[in-house]
């Protein structure tokens, strides 16, 4: 399966999105781990900001526009990546594999039979003569 192409934002688009954000996180809503309609609004510290593709994923043509660019803090971007992006990509891969007839290999565990060629004869074998509790008892007077 060929790797999907990513449509990255241009520097001009990132500059415009950064200016639009006013130095604060633009992440909004449940996909970023916030309440519906709530905006993060955390001020960026230093250069700690990331440019996220939302609502269109980076693999869709036309996703590299200013309207699809969200300037967000690393916490919001990480949350969305873990809980939204990665599971969505995994589902696309599973559906694609199923459509192509690709399945996980069926792994069977080989069984070990007791008997010839195997050193283990029985788990309940009788103790040999002379070995038993007396063997472990202290024989010193």
Count every helix, treating DSSP H or I runs of 4 or more residues as helices.
3
* Spatial ordering of strands, largest sheet: 1-2
Characterize the overall form. elongated
Series of secondary-structure elements, N-terminal to C-terminal: HEEHH
Secondary-structure class: mainly alpha
Protein name: HNH endonuclease
Organism: Devosia ginsengisoli
Domain HNH: 38-82
GO molecular function: endonuclease activity; nucleic acid binding; zinc ion binding
Report on this structure.
This protein has 141 residues and is mainly α. It has a domain at 11-97. 29% of the residues lie in helices and 6% in strands. The protein has 3 helices and 2 strands, in the order H-E-E-H-H. The chain has helices at residues 11-21, 74-99, 133-136; strands spanning 50-53, 69-72. Strands 1-2 form a two-stranded antiparallel ribbon. The radius of gyration is 31 Å and the shape is elongated. The model has no long low-confidence stretch (mean pLDDT 83).
